[in-house]
Amino acid sequence: xxxxxxxxxxxxxxxxxxxxxxxxxxxxxxxxxxxxxxxxxxxxxxxxxxxxxxxxxxxxxxxxxxxxxxxxxxxxxxxxxxxxxxxxxxxxxxxxxxxxxxxxxxxxxxxxxxxxxxxxxxxxxxxxxxxxxxxxxxxxxxxxxxxxxxxxxxxxxxxxxxxxxxxxxxxxxxxxxxxxxxxxxxxxxxxxxxxxxxxxxxxxxxxxxxxxxxxxxxxxxxxxxxxxxxxxxxxxxxxxxxxxxxxxxxxxxxxxxxxxxxxxxxxxxxxxxxxxxxxxxxxxxxxxxxxxxxxxxxxxxxxxxxxxxxxxxxxxxxxxxxxxxxxxxxxxxxxxxxxx
Length: 340
What we know:
Strand content: 15-25%
Mean pLDDT: 91
Distance between the termini: 15 Å
Number of strands: 13
Largest sheet: 9 strands, mixed
């Protein structure tokens, strides 16, 4: 059995410039971090004495006789993509610390973790860069999803990173090197609040892509915020300007397409600002999901009381990215130790 563990991400600045429709023409950049909340994928060869041939456990339990019958699109196409067939039965389980369709990159995290686990089951290792590339190919080219390119890269690499997107389609990942005390200071200013899942993320992303020509000035400004935020993190002054920059970026983002925000999200954000949050954003494409707020540590308790009806998720940054946390008996019977 193989078990992969893949982190979810929090994106700070530059979201929108990571869509190929944008960066292949203008380039792009994103500042993001992965957090200590994970997607777990276990995969094994299903013993032949089971009546079913393949068993897939996610929010549904699927027992099917062939890969073509699998309902979960990423699993079905991921198995085909990696060369699996029906010669040997498979069992795949998914568990997540955070809910799907909530703006923390769950679909891409799943894709990365799935590829990591299935390749390990085949006895193959894969570097972080290639893992991200395969997840991008699966989601964007095979599944034809309206997704950007930041989530797959963040999940594969892990850490607090500047991700640059080039007009030739390549990308570069540059770890943000700041003292641990500065990272801890940033963490102490952040709160993650769950407002509910949304099925509209792909639809809103499609609208954002369609509006890119008309929103070019806003996207260029959002790209510029990445450099400003990096300078603030690498400096020694107050981080308050980081929060104020988040507010400016959210103001721009909510105008990229109808549905990025809504009355409920606007009201939550208004309450947060009234309680001391200097800035924040709805994570993901929009509509609902997780909201991130930046507030001074002495304002965090007031903020939490004001939004007590929602689920608050404590978190820290993480640096590993997608890893194999367990590798037991392979099909051939050889035993492997857990490895990244």
